[in-house]
């Protein structure tokens, strides 16, 4: 605390990211990173951009990342998306931040699930956005009928985090149809691991913004690239905020790397299938150990053991060099969120849990 702080800083409750420890032989299943390397085409594109002496880095990147926005539009060509319907940012966290400021700050409170991505309330605090939480049902699932009331906007992660539960596209469409006057933001950070994208609805609903990231299904968390797809007028609002904040959110390496990654659909398909296969096996193995596991359409699962305290399980795993995520929050403090690792990592996790439970 300091007398030099702006008053706002005193009031902030910042987001606490999952631990990124320096230990080497660690099995890191706490921040939903992908266990597989990114597309070799993305790596090659960045190496070309870097060159032997890095001379390109003298120059600012292209501020609108048009190359990447065109690649996103091409990736979703089946939904007739154009580059002016795409906004990009330094990770989807930045895209989300701009969205809260550009589209979600109105007189009526925004609606969001009581259990969801814990950055949303942080943005509400930062931008002074009034919000009201809507409880998940008893199965920890979103019930869209609960969102049919006056609001200044709605934000939902689909699949939800940290539960991994998926809303079918038909439910998203009900939400849109019931709230034509509100901006509806669907955060699809994990959608490639088992859901249908709401980008299919963008050209029918001018109030829909879909936010996505290359951090999870494209294995590029370290590159920091996220994007939003929506009606061009929503995108214009985001660009106005971005150009009042940082004109160059994507650096030169990120633009070419992300573009090549979006173009490499075969690599995406291969890795997402591998993660989904490992998820099925891990769920079966955890259920055999007595865990209750929520149905997951994400690259993580949300599990609890009826006889064991979740915080103690997380601590015992940590002693064995395996980190998973435990949230000390109401309703979910007996759950663990476990990222789907490689098959070897998942097997090590199951073996460790077996030892701890016996
Ligand atoms: C639901 C959700 N949205 C957005 C993000 C942010 O991802 P990134 O900033 O890496 O794109 C995360 C990260 O874990 C997430 O869980």
Describe this structure in words.
With 358 residues, the protein is of the alpha/beta class. The strands form four sheets. It has a five-stranded mixed sheet with strand order 2-8-7-6-5, with helices on both faces. Strands 9-10-12 form a three-stranded antiparallel sheet. β3, α5 and β4 form a beta-alpha-beta unit. α4 packs across α7. The model has no long low-confidence stretch (mean pLDDT 97). The structure holds pyridoxal-5'-phosphate.
Task: Report a brief summary of the structure.
The protein is α/β, with parallel strands linked by helices and 358 residues long.
* Percentage beta strand: 5-15%
| DSSP summary, beta strand count | 12
The biggest sheet, with number of strands, parallel, antiparallel or mixed sense and barrel status, is: 5 strands, mixed
Shape: globular
Structure classification: alpha/beta
Helix content: 25-40%
SSE series: HEHHEHEHEEHEEEHHHEEHEEH
pLDDT < 50 stretches: none
Termini separation comes to 47 Å
Mean pLDDT: 97
Rg, Cα atoms, Å: 20 Å
Strand adjacency order, main sheet:
2-8-7-6-5
Distinct helical segment count: 11
Bound molecules: pyridoxal-5'-phosphate
């Amino acid at each position: 605390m300091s007398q030099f702080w702006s008053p706002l800083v005193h009031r902030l409750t910042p987001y606490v990211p999952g631990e990124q420890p320096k230990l080497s032989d660690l099995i890191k299943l706490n921040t939903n990173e992908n266990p597989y390397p990114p597309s070799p085409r993305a790596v090659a594109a960045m190496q070309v951009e870097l060159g032997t002496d890095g001379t390109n880095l003298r120059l600012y990147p292209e501020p609108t990342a048009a190359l990447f926005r065109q690649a996103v539009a091409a990736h979703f060509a089946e939904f007739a998306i154009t580059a002016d319907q795409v906004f990009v940012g330094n990770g989807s966290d930045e895209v989300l931040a701009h969205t809260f400021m550009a589209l979600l700050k109105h007189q009526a409170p925004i609606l969001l699930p009581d259990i969801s991505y814990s950055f949303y309330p942080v943005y509400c605090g930062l931008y002074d956005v009034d919000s009201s939480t809507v409880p998940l049902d008893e199965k920890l699932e979103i019930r869209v009928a609960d969102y049919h009331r006056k609001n200044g906007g709605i934000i939902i992660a689909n699949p939800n985090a940290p539960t991994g539960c998926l809303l079918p596209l038909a439910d998203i469409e009900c939400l849109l149809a019931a709230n034509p006057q509100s901006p509806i933001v669907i955060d699809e950070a994990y959608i490639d691991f088992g859901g249908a994208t709401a980008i299919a609805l963008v050209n029918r609903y001018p109030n829909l913004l879909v936010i996505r990231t290359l951090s999870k299904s494209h294995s590029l968390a370290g590159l920091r690239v996220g994007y939003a797809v929506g009606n061009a007028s929503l995108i214009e609002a985001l660009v106005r905020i971005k150009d009042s904040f940082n004109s160059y959110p994507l650096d030169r390496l990120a633009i070419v790397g992300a573009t090549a990654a979006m173009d490499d659909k075969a690599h995406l398909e291969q890795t997402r299938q591998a993660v989904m296969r490992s998820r099925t096996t891990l769920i079966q193995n955890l259920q055999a150990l007595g865990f209750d596991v929520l149905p997951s359409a994400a690259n993580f699962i949300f599990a609890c053991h009826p006889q064991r305290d979740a915080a103690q399980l997380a601590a015992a795993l940590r002693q064995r060099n395996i980190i998973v995520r435990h949230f000390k929050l109401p309703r979910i403090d007996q759950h663990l969120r476990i990222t789907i690792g490689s098959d070897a990592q998942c097997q090590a996790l199951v073996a460790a849990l077996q030892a701890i439970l016996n």
